[in-house]
TrEMBL record:
The keyword Hydrolase applies. It is found in: Membrane. GO terms for molecular function: ATP binding; ATP hydrolysis activity; ATPase-coupled monoatomic cation transmembrane transporter activity; metal ion binding. This is P-type transport ATPase (Probable substrate cobalt/metal cation). GO terms for cellular component: membrane. Gene3D superfamilies: 3.30.70.100, Calcium-transporting ATPase, cytoplasmic domain N, Calcium-transporting ATPase, cytoplasmic transduction domain A, HAD superfamily/HAD-like. It comes from Halobacterium hubeiense. Belongs to the cation transport ATPase (P-type) (TC 3.A.3) family. Type IB subfamily. InterPro entries: ATPase_P-typ_cyto_dom_N, ATPase_P-typ_P_site, ATPase_P-typ_TM_dom_sf, ATPase_P-typ_transduc_dom_A_sf, ATPase_P-type_domA, Cation_Transport_ATPase, HAD-like_sf, HAD_sf. Residues 12-78 form the HMA domain.
Length: 726
């Protein structure tokens, strides 16, 4: 059971399996039972996906109490370790369903042919008996289980209709109904199972063993016994068994199975690699950074499975309407019998028409239309390195009207380079050299994770500078940093830092320093001022300038978003406006919001939501977490190596490919069109058949074919999303 804490509530996901029966009525009954518990705020149960997701107040109710309440409803709880066993059981049940469908067809054929040829009555009824028993087996179990929870569902509708046909001397029609109903159920389970297996098959991509170096020799070790820090060897053509960092060797790695990148990625010492990917060339020695169960591919599989248990809004709406709709069908059927009989109609024909009406009005196709499409979309995204963390986010992607991008690391490479180190003219300490200034700055920046800090430290290391120790490091988000070095405090920051942190200090050389910053920014460079404070006096020592490069394909990606119908594209950055505007002009951004603090990014997203309603925010999942959470759809990049990205956003791009963003919105829009088509087919078939039955009447077999045919059709149409490409 996975538990996620929030400030006031907790959410637990319990892996479940109902003992006996099928259908959603038991799930609804379990939901109602859990909602009655004090402290439970929200419940979402699905026996199809095998998960119950409960949001509760931990101060009022415990996890164990919730688990006991689940068991009270005759529902078994599965441990994570039972997943593989459950998969085998599911496949075995599917094979059994296929056998039952075959026996139903055989029994129906025997009964029909024997009746045509006026053969032995015993043989005919034996054939129909086989068809009714095996065709109605699962439906009857589901109906009984549903009635135990004082509810009704589609299974009960089908069983009643089949028995009704039998009671008026139409055994073939009843047998045909059960055959097509069981066949459509089997095809639905196969379709949904296929979309889930598309992700689970990733497990098979990871080798079971690794060639670990022990005392200079290669030893074959099961991957579960490989520890963090061990070094293993991968040769050309081998699959990489675990996540790690290359320590020796160079080569190219095919990461398509995880990140969706179509081109092999060059790897050299210091680069990260992921389990399940393929080493195409070069022998690599790799140090393990994560154990098998923590690897990127394992996390991807787990999160996709969890996503498939979270229903889309359309599906949740349909689930809520199922119970009253089924009761309405029963009411309509009873009225179709009672009213004509009261007006003097003949019983057999009236009852036959009522059974036909019951079959035609049953909402099987409506109920399966959404999960068939949404689960396929989630699986399709997973195979492309795009992780949707729930069905609701697939639907949200379809409605996006505006997209906001973080600049650094998203639209740009994030590989900022230090280009200029300037010492101020007229400085009292004339002996200060650019290298000495860089050394002072690097001593402070060594304590920071900011991209400018990394560029500064990298340049100091490249120049082999002697960097002194810094003390009492402090950071001002979006502004700058400071620390004590030698006998003074070194301040490094932008104009906002000077105007706030140093506003009360008299700073020597401030005006020429700010003028130089403006000049550098006009050249499209990000720049910071360096000042030293000692005994209450501050002096500008100099300034540093940095550049970043736009990601290849960023401009094409923006064009693709426009072709999808995105109305407005914004860039959000803490950088200065001139640098930001230069990059925006290069890639075709509509609006630039620069020099933003993290809280100001959130306010900007809120404003965009007011203007455009549905807004996507694209960031790196670390610094942009509040903005990602505020947007309608948060998209984090580079999730394969980032724990924060996996926890922050609604959609995670496992690779670092900005070109996948149009894929995300395109898949959402294709899913919406598929849902529209499916619901049109489902409701259209019901309306057509019910209208025809009420006006003219149609044979029961034709209603059965129309009902089950539409169910199979929407299942297969949803399955087409598995093949969606950009």
């Amino acid at each position: 059971m996975a538990v996620t804490e929030s400030p006031s509530l907790s959410t637990c996901t319990i892996h479940i399996e109902r003992r006996g029966g099928r259908g959603d009525a038991g799930a609804r009954a379990l939901e109602r039972h859990l909602r009655r518990l004090s402290g439970v705020h929200d419940v979402d149960v699905s026996f199809r996906t095998g998960d119950a997701r409960i949001t509760y107040d931990g101060s009022l109710i415990s996890e164990e109490t919730i688990r006991d309440a689940v068991r009270d409803r005759h529902v078994s709880i599965q441990d994570e370790s039972e997943t593989a066993t459950d998969e085998v059981s599911t496949r075995s049940e599917l094979r059994q369903e296929v056998v039952f469908v075959g026996l139903t067809l055989l029994g129906m054929a025997v009964g029909l042919v024997t009746g045509w040829l006026e053969g032995p009555q015993l043989l005919m009824w034996a054939g129909y008996g086989v068809a009714y028993v095996f065709g109605g087996w699962y439906g009857l179990k589901g109906a009984v289980e549903t009635l135990r929870h004082r509810a009704v569902d589609i299974d009960l509708l089908m069983i009643v209709a089949a028995l009704g046909a039998l009671s008026i001397g139409a055994p073939f029609e009843g047998a045909m109904l059960l055959f097509l109903f069981s066949l459509s159920n089997t095809l639905q389970h196969y379709a949904i199972g296929r979309s889930r297996r598309a992700i689970k098959s990733l497990v098979e991509m990871r080798p079971d063993e690794a060639q670990v170096l022990r005392d200079g020799e290669e030893v074959t070790v099961p991957i579960d016994e490989v520890a963090v820090g061990d070094v293993f060897v991968v040769r050309p053509g081998d699959r990489i068994p675990l996540d790690g960092v290359v320590t020796s060797g160079e080569g190219t790695v095919d990461q398509a199975s995880l990140t969706g990148e179509s081109v092999p990625v060059p790897k050299e010492p210091g680069d990260e690699v992921f389990g399940g990917t393929i080493n195409e060339s070069g022998s690599l020695e790799i140090e393990v950074t994560r154990q098998a169960h923590e690897s990127a591919i394992s996390r991807l599989i787990h999160m996709v499975e969890r996503a498939q248990s979270e229903k889309a809004p359309t599906q949740r709406l349909i689930d809520r309407l199922e119970q009253p709709y089924v009761l309405g069908v029963f009411g309509l059927t009873i009225a179709a019998i009672a009213i004509p009989l009261a007006l003097g109609s003949e019983f057999t024909s009236t009852f036959y028409r009522a059974m036909t009406l019951m079959v035609a009005a049953s909402p099987c196709a409506v109920i399966i239309s959404t999960p068939a499409a949404v689960l396929s979309a989630i699986a399709s995204g997973g195979r492309q390195g795009v992780l949707f963390k729930g069905g609701e986010h697939v639907e949200a992607a379809a409605n996006i009207d505006a997209v906001a991008f973080d600049k650094t690391g998203t639209l740009t490479r994030g590989e900022t380079q230090l280009t200029d180190v300037f010492v101020r003219d007229g400085l009292a300490d004339e002996s200060l050299t650019p290298d000495e200034l860089l050394s002072l700055v690097a001593s402070v920046q060594a304590r920071s994770e900011h991209h400018l800090a990394r560029a500064t430290v990298s340049e100091a290391e490249a120049r082999a500078l002697d960097v002194p120790d810094a003390r009492r490091f402090q950071s001002e988000a979006g502004k700058g940093v400071r620390a004590d070095v030698d006998d003074g405090t070194i301040h490094i920051g932008n104009r906002s830092y000077v105007e706030t942190v140093l506003e009360d200090a008299a700073i020597e050389g401030l005006e020429p320093g700010l003028d130089r910053l403006r000049t550098l920014e006009a050249e499209g460079k990000t720049s910071v001022l360096v000042a030293r404070e000692h005994a209450g006096n501050a002096t500008v020592l100099g300034w540093l300038a940095f550049t970043d490069t736009v990601r290849p394909g960023a401009a094409e990606m923006i064009e693709d978003l426009r072709s999808l119908g995105v109305e407005h594209i914004v860039m959000l950055t803490g950088d200065n406006e001139r640098v930001a505007q230069q990059i925006a002009d290069e890639v075709g951004i509509d609006e630039v919001q620069a020099e933003l603090l993290p809280e100001e990014k959130v306010a900007t997203i809120e404003d965009l939501v007011e203007r455009y309603e549905n807004v996507a925010m694209v960031g790196d999942g670390v610094n942009d977490a509040p903005a990602l959470a505020t947007a309608t759809l948060g998209i984090a990049m580079g999730g394969a190596g980032t724990d924060v990205a996996l926890e922050t956003a609604d959609v995670v791009l496992m690779g670092d490919d900005i070109g996948k963003i149009p894929y995300v919105l395109g898949l959402g829009r294709r899913t919406r069109r598929t849902l529209t088509v499916n619901l049109t087919i489902a409701f259209g078939a019901i309306a057509l058949m019910v209208g025809t039955i009420l006006l003219r009447g149609i044979p029961l077999p034709l209603a059965v074919v129309g009902h089950e045919g539409s169910t199979v059709l929407v299942s297969l149409n949803g399955l087409r999303l598995l093949g969606f490409r950009e």
